[in-house]
Structures are given as C-alpha cells and as structure tokens.
Design brief:
heterodimer; A: 197 residues; mainly alpha; Nitrile Hydratase, Chain A; two-stranded parallel ribbon; globular; B: alpha+beta; Cyclin A, domain 1; SH3 type barrels; 2 domains; 5 strands
Chain lengths: 197, 208
C-alpha cells in the first residue's frame, strides 16, 4: 500500500511502521483503504486556500459581507459553503493601514483547515513557532513581508478552539477587477499574515 | 517558562523559517496513510484531541525536534492505540516493523483547579497563573505569570488539561488575551507588537 511497484529502495523505517499499523488496523476492521483514500483526496483536491481566497474576495466587494465576516467568521464562511474539521470556531482578523495581523500555533499546528487546507511544513516546524511570538517583525522581514514601523503587529497564537484567518487589505489599483479576478490575487500566505499583497 | 519541548513559543536558538515553494499537502505516501488513519480513528471516537496532542507531547524531546510532522502523528496515534489496548507493540513488530518506538508514559496529571471567579469581561486586566504542568495543558509557558487584557470571550469549551487525563468534561469560557510584547520579552521586545493567546478561564486570575 505504501510501496509503489516502481520503488526500488527498501522501505524506510517510517514506511515500515506506517505499513505495519495500517495492515494491523485493517485486519482488525478499524480502518479501510477506501476511507483513508477519501479523506486524503479531500485535502489534496477539494479543500485548500482557494476557499479562503473566495471569502476574502467576497469581503473586498461586499461591505455587508465583510462586516458579517468580522462579526461571526464561522457563520459568514459557512455562507460560502465552507466548514468542517478545524473550522468550528473561525475568527477573521482584518489588516488595515495601521494594523498587520499574523497567525501562529506555538503549541502544535492549529490552522483553519476549511479555508486554507492543511498547513505547510514551515508553519508546523519549530523556527516559526518559536520565533513568531518573540520577533514577529524580524520573521516577517525575512519572509519578504516588511511591516512599516508605524504599523502595529498583532500576533494570534491559536492555543484553544478558535482558528484564525487574516483578511488582507485589498491591493490598490484593483477597483476595476471582478470578484472572480480578485480571487486570483489572494494568496495562502496573505491569509496567514506572512505576506502583504 | 516552557518546560515541554512542544511548547516552543519564544524559545531561542532557532534559525530561518525554511519555505518550500509550491509545497504539496503531503510529501510521501506514508504521510497520506498516517493522515487518513488518524482521521479514521479520531472520527470513531477512540481518543479525543487532547489525548492525541498529549501523546505527541510525550515523545522524547530530541526525537520530537528531529522528526517530520507526520511522524509525530504516527507516534501519537500508535501510542494511544497501545495504551488503550487496541493493538500491542508485538503485533506491530510482527506486521513488518522491526522496531516501533512510542511516546513515554503519561505522568500523574496535575490539573489546575477549576476557577471560582466569575467570567472575565472584555477589557478586563488578567494575569496568567504560574502553574507548572506535568500533564497536558494548552496554556503556553511564555505567558504564564504575565499580565494581559481580555479582548474577546468565546464560548465554553472542555478543559483540555482534564480531558487528556480523565473521563471528566468540565467546560469553561475561553478568552483571547492580548499581551504587550514588552510584558512578555522586556527590553528585547520589538516595538509596536501585541501577542494574543487564547486561554481557558482556569488559567487566569483577575488583576486588582
């Protein structure tokens, strides 16, 4: 199952462990390959940052939606059909001319799956988790998101049940774009807060 | 400050954040299988999220830091299944894994007592209690003992410190508490930064 036929190297210790656990759980009737394939496919094909980009673009073109999104993120995001695991309590924080928001989970890997999909490795790895709360300005500068000195940085550590998404500022000069065109401008990193569009 | 390896907020010595452009959700098929197996077992209610997190947090610290993310999930999942008697390590090894390390056994839990105080109000000043957990907690070490301001009250949620260690399911409000960077990091703090941490009621006490 974990060993494609064209793969000539012997299985690594981690591959051996995963295969052993899956085989054992399958024999005990606790997991099925079909269910595993299905849930994996959801996060490889259906649930990802495009969902969040649609939420952001809607907020950029519809002031009433933006207000609902900032008041009750979970409900407003559900209006677009998005919800599910790691999305029971969504809070959207808005960037302005004077505030830049950025999201981290120092204790593990909490992340708003319904709107951003599964988190990238760097978000789950120790350097980001250790440094973002102590030196956010320096980390953002390293990542190419320099925040002007007169802009306050608000770091949100997802340590309980809420999962956060950043509402980036609409880029200047995009007044003529349609909602669909705006969707294409919204990046995952901007919705985490590590990029400034 | 932090005493457990996973409690990384503010830890010193780490280098650059390494970004992989165009990163896929999974990097190998074994990661897909681990994600899917964990989703299955959790959906069956065989373990709760606090138990799962705690099982990962009990990995040897050196192993935790050196291993890829989905190895944490595999280890947490296998540890819980062994501890709950669903599988045993001999069975795993008989199915082709010559060695199948799991996390250390849980220490006796020392849950902070339930708070007697009334719920805090938005705008209220609070201090994070200075407890030293030997079990699971979602109170990061870098805010313990520090003062902040409640900026949002969320609903009542099961206290993870209890859920990870017992059958009890007490629920309390959680709050987003804003800490000025200078409160947390002193003279090292970057100017113009605020850190918001989501905390259960019992982690907090009122500041007079």
């Amino acid at each position: 199952m974990t060993e494609p036929a064209h793969h000539h190297a012997p299985p690594s210790p981690i591959e051996q462990r995963v295969a052993a656990l899956e085989q054992l759980l399958t024999e005990k009737g606790l997991v099925t390959s079909e269910f595993i394939d299905g849930v994996v496919s959801l996060y490889e094909n259906d649930i990802g940052p495009l969902n969040g980009a649609k939420v952001v673009a809607r907020a950029w073109v519809d002031p009433d939606y933006r207000q609902r999104l900032l008041t009750d993120g979970t409900a407003a995001i559900a209006e677009l059909g998005f919800g599910g695991p790691e999305g029971g309590h969504l809070v959207v924080v808005e960037n302005t001319d004077t505030v830049h928001n950025v999201v981290v989970c120092t204790l593990c890997s909490c992340y708003p799956w319904p709107v951003l999909g599964l988190p990238p490795v760097w978000y789950k790895a120790p350097p980001y988790r250790a440094r973002m709360v102590r030196e956010p300005r320096a980390v953002l500068r390293e990542l190419g998101a320099e925040v002007p000195a007169d802009v306050e940085i608000r770091v949100w550590d997802s340590s309980a049940e809420v999962r956060y998404m950043v509402l980036p500022q609409r880029p200047a000069g995009t007044g003529d774009l349609t909602e669909d065109e705006l969707v294409g401008l919204v990046t995952r990193d901007a919705m985490i807060g590590v990029a400034r569009p | 400050m932090a005493e457990w390896v996973h409690d990384l907020g503010g830890s010193r010595g780490f280098g650059p954040v390494e970004v992989e452009p165009g990163e896929p959700p999974f990097h190998a098929d074994w990661e897909r299988r681990v994600f899917g197996m964990t989703a299955t077992v959790m959906a069956q209610g065989r373990a709760n999220g606090s138990e799962f997190r705690h099982a990962i947090e009990r990995m040897d610290p050196g192993w935790y830091l050196a291993s890829p993310y989905y190895e944490h999930w595999l280890t947490g999942l296998a540890t819980l299944l062994v501890e709950k008697g669903v599988v045993d390590r001999e069975e795993l090894e008989a199915h082709g894994a010559p060695s199948f390390p799991i996390s250390r056994a849980a220490a006796r839990a020392d849950v902070p007592p339930g708070a007697q105080a009334d719920p805090f109000a938005v705008g209220q000043r609070v201090r994070v209690r200075s407890f030293e957990p030997r079990g699971h907690t979602r109170c990061p070490g870098y805010v313990r003992g520090h003062r902040g301001t409640v900026v949002r009250r969320d609903g009542d949620h099961t206290v993870p410190d209890v859920e990870a260690h017992s059958e009890e399911r007490p629920a309390e409000p959680t709050y987003s508490v804003a800490f000025d960077a200078t409160e947390l990091w002193g003279s090292e703090a970057e100017p113009g930064a605020t850190v918001h941490v989501d905390l259960w009621h019992r982690y907090l006490e009122a500041v007079e």
